[in-house]
Amino acid sequence: MHNVRTRRAIVLAAAGVLLAAAAVLADTIRADGDVVTPGVQGLVELGQVAPSAVIHVDVAFQLECSGTNKHVDANQSVTLTLASRTVPPGGNATGTAAVINPPGSGWPVDGTDCSSLPNPIVSATNSHVTLTAPPTPGLGWQYTLNYTRSLSPISPNDPNTFTGSTNVTFRLDVVTNTPPVLTVPANMTVEGDTTGGAGHVTFAATATDAEDNPDPTPTCSPVSGSFFALGTTTVGCSVTDSGGLTTTGSFTVTVVDTTAPTMSGVPADISLVTNDPAGATITYVMPTATDVVDARPSVSCSPASGSLAPVGDSVVTCTAADASGNSTTRTFSVSVHLNAPPVLSLPANRTVEGDTTGGAHVAYAVTATDAEDNPDPTPVCAPAGGSLFTLGATTVTCSVTDSGGLTATGSFTVTVVDTTAPSLSGVPAGLSLVTNDPAGATISYSLPTATDIVDANPTVSCSPASGSLAPVGASLVTCTATDGSGNSTTQTFPVSVHLNAGPVLILPANVTVEGNTTGGARVTFVATATDAEDNPDPSPTCTPASGSVFGLGATTVSCNVTDSGGLTDRGTFRVTVVDTTAPTLSGGPGSLSLTTTDPAGAILSYTAPTATDVVDAHPSVSCSPASGARAPVGDSFIYCDATDASGNTAGSRFPVHVTLLTTDTWSAAWDEPIGGLPVQVTANSGRTLPVKLRLYRNGSEIVTGSAFLRIVPCGATAPAIDIPLVFGGRWTAKLDTSMLSGDCFRVSAMVGAAEAGSFRLDISGYTPVRQPSKSPAKSPKP
C-alpha cells in the first residue's frame, strides 16, 4: 500500500498525448510513468488513504518525436498548464506548470520523419500536484487532471493557438483504517567477529501506517545487536497499529567465518654448525595461533622440533587451521654447516712515537673470522692492545680458537721511538730594568721548567745566568731544555736596562664652570703623568682634589707626582666658578579679583612668591605694590622680582582687577563659548569670537536700552575699545581679535557707566610676548 501522509511525497509522472488541431503538431507528449514502476502510467493507483488525507505527487512529461508534419522547433520550449480537473465530491486537486526545454538542433525539422529516433526529452520542471481525499470513505475515487500546451517562442509557420491536451488520472480508496506496512532488511550475510559467531549484528526494521502518527514500532527476535552463531538464523518481526491490525515478516542472518587464524611466535631462521656429516638436531619453540571465531585453532610444524636437519639449507613449514577450515602457513629456514678453522688477521709491523713516560701506549686491532661462528671468535694477544710499550722493538704474539676448538696463531712487532723535543714553560717574557749604574743592572729571574713526553726529567740551563750583570741597553738570555734521547728546545727572552729619568706631569688648562651647587660648583678634572721607566705610570695628587666643591671666583689647584726612582714634577692650573643663572620664582597670589566702595581702590592682601637658586641658598624676593598697599579700581598688575647674591634677577606679574561697587547690582550671565563666571578665555590671534549674554539689574533681566563691550589691556584703564551689544532675545556681539594689539585683555559688559560682568581674554600666537629679564635691574612697570 502507498503511505499518503502530508510528510511524504510520491514521485509520479503523468502521461498525456499532445493533440494538435488539423494535425498542426505531430510530436507527442507521453508520461514518464510511476518512477517506482516500469512502463507508462496514464492512470496511477494511489492505494488506500485516510479521509481528507492530503497527497503530494510530482507529474513529469516526456516529449517524443512523432509523424512527419509539424515538429517542435529546435529553440522552442513547451509549457504544460493545468487547465481543468475532475475530482470526487469533497476532494480537490491543484498543480503547478511544467516546462520541457527546447530539443536543440538534433530534433527533426518540419516535414521530416522520426527515422533517426531521437531520444525523448524529459521535462526540466515537474508539475507539483496536491490532491485532497474526500472526507467520506469509499472505493475507486478518481481524479482527472487536464493540461494544455503552449510553445515559446511562436514561429511564423505555427498557428497562434493549439488545441488538444495531456491528461493524467489518479485513483484511490478512502478507508477509516489500514494495516501497517512492515519493511524488513534483505537477507544478510556477515563475517564472524567473536568466538562462535558475530557479537553484535545490527539491522533496522521499520513500519508505516496511514492512520498512526507517529508510525508504530516493529519488534524482532532475535533483537538488533544480538549475538548470532555461525550458520543461518531466521529473524521474525511483527508490527501492530493502534487499530489492532498486525503485519509480520522475516529475513535471515547468515554468519560465516572466512578469516584465517593469525600465527605468532614463528621462530627466526636457524643456523647450526656440526662435525657430523649426517646433519644437526634442530630445536625450536612451537608458534601459537589466534582466531576471531575459533577459540582453539590447531598448529603443526614439519619437520618437528628435535628432528635431524641435513647439512645445507632446508625449510620448516608451520600451519595454523581453524574449525571452519581456514588456514595460515609460515616457514623459516634451517642452515647446517660443517666446522672450519678460524682465520687470524694481524696488523703489519709498525713504528710509533713515544707518547708517555718511558715509551708509548699502543692500541692495535687484531680480528678473526670463522665460517661457522657468529659472532666471530675473539683473538687474544700479548702484550695487549693499549699496553705500555717501552722504547725499542717489542714482539706481539696472538692466537684465536673457534667454537669447534680449532686454533690459529701469529705475531707482529711494535717499535717505539722518541724524536720529540721537550717543551719549555715559564720562560720570562722579558726584563726591563732601571739603574743609576752606567755599568748596567743585575738581572734576576726564575729558571724555566721543561716537560717531555718520554723523559720525566729533561735538563734546563740559561745563559747569562740569573744574578749576572746585564749592560745598559738591549741583550738576550738563551734557555735550553734537553731530554734523554738528545732532543733539545731553545728559547730566548730580551733584557732592557735603562738609566733613570724623571716623570712628566700633564695638567688640564684653566677652566671656567657654571655654579651647580650651594656656594659654588662641584668640579671634576683629570691630571695624569708619564714616566719612561715606570709601568704603570705614577699617579699625581692634587689640592683641592677632583670632585671637591669650588667656591665662587678663582681657585688655584696644585699638583705633584713622584716616580719609583724618587724624582718629582709639580704644576698648577686655575678653576673659576661663575653664577649667571637667575633664581626661579614659584607660588604667588595668582590672579586677584577685588571689590570696593572706595573710588581710590582696594587694599591688597597676598602671600609673596618664593625663590630658589642653584648657588644662592637664600635669594631675595620683592613685590610692588606690596601686600597692604592699595590697588586702583580697574585692572593692574603685581610685579615680583627674585635676585640672587650674584645679581641675577627673575621677574613675574600677577593681574589684579578691582570692581567699584554701586547702589545698583549689575550682573551678566555669559552663554557659550564664554561660559559661567569666573572665566578666562583663550583665542587664537585673528579669530572672531562670538559673545552672547544676558544682563540683569538688581536680579531683573534688562531687555531694552543700550549696552556695549569694553575691551581694556590687562593692567591698564586705557586705551579702551567699545563694541555695541545688540539685543535679539539675548545681547550679542562679535569680537574681532585682529583689531587688538597685545596678549591679555579684560572684556567687560557695560550698561552706561556700570559694569555688569567681565572675563579675561588671552590672545594665543600674538607677538611680541613679554619675557622675564635676566638683568640685575628691576623689570619696568607699564
Task: Describe, in plain words, how this protein is organized in 3D.
The chain is mostly beta strands. The protein has no helices and 69 strands. Strands 61, 62, 63, 64, 65, 66, 67, 68 and 69 form a nine-stranded mixed sheet that branches.
Keywords, separated by commas or semicolons:
flat, mainly beta, 49% strand, 782 residues, nine-stranded mixed β-sheet, 69 strands, five-stranded mixed β-sheet, disordered N terminus
Largest sheet: 9 strands, mixed
What's the alpha carbon Rg, rounded to whole Å? Answer: 64 Å
Could you tell me the number of beta strands? 69
Averaged pLDDT, please? 86
Please estimate the helix content.
under 10%
Strand-residue proportion: over 45%
Q: Kindly report the oligomeric state of this protein.
A: single chain
Low-confidence stretches: 1-24, 768-782
Bulk shape: flat
Q: What count of helical segments does DSSP give?
A: 0
Distance between the termini: 118 Å
Structure classification: mainly beta
Short note summarizing the structure:
With 782 residues, the protein is mainly β.
Record the SSE blueprint.
Elements lengths: L8 E3 L16 E4 L11 E7 L4 E6 L1 E4 L12 E10 L5 E4 L2 E3 L20 E2 L4 E6 L5 E15 L13 E9 L6 E3 L4 E4 L5 E5 L4 E3 L10 E3 L4 E4 L1 E10 L5 E11 L5 E3 L5 E5 L5 E2 L6 E3 L7 E5 L5 E2 L2 E10 L5 E12 L4 E3 L4 E4 L5 E4 L4 E3 L10 E3 L4 E4 L1 E10 L5 E11 L5 E3 L5 E5 L5 E2 L6 E3 L7 E5 L5 E2 L2 E10 L5 E12 L4 E3 L4 E4 L5 E3 L5 E3 L10 E3 L5 E3 L1 E10 L5 E11 L5 E3 L5 E5 L5 E2 L6 E3 L7 E5 L5 E2 L2 E10 L5 E12 L5 E5 L9 E5 L3 E10 L2 E3 L4 E7 L7 E7 L3 E6 L7 E8 L2 E11 L18
Parallel strand pairs: 1-4, 3-12, 14-20, 22-28, 30-36, 38-44, 46-52, 54-60, 62-69
Antiparallel strand pairs: 2-5, 4-10, 5-9, 6-8, 6-11, 7-10, 11-12, 13-16, 15-18, 17-19, 19-20, 21-24, 23-26, 25-27, 27-28, 29-32, 31-34, 33-35, 35-36, 37-40, 39-42, 41-43, 43-44, 45-48, 47-50, 49-51, 51-52, 53-56, 55-58, 57-59, 59-60, 61-63, 63-64, 63-67, 65-66, 65-68, 66-67, 68-69
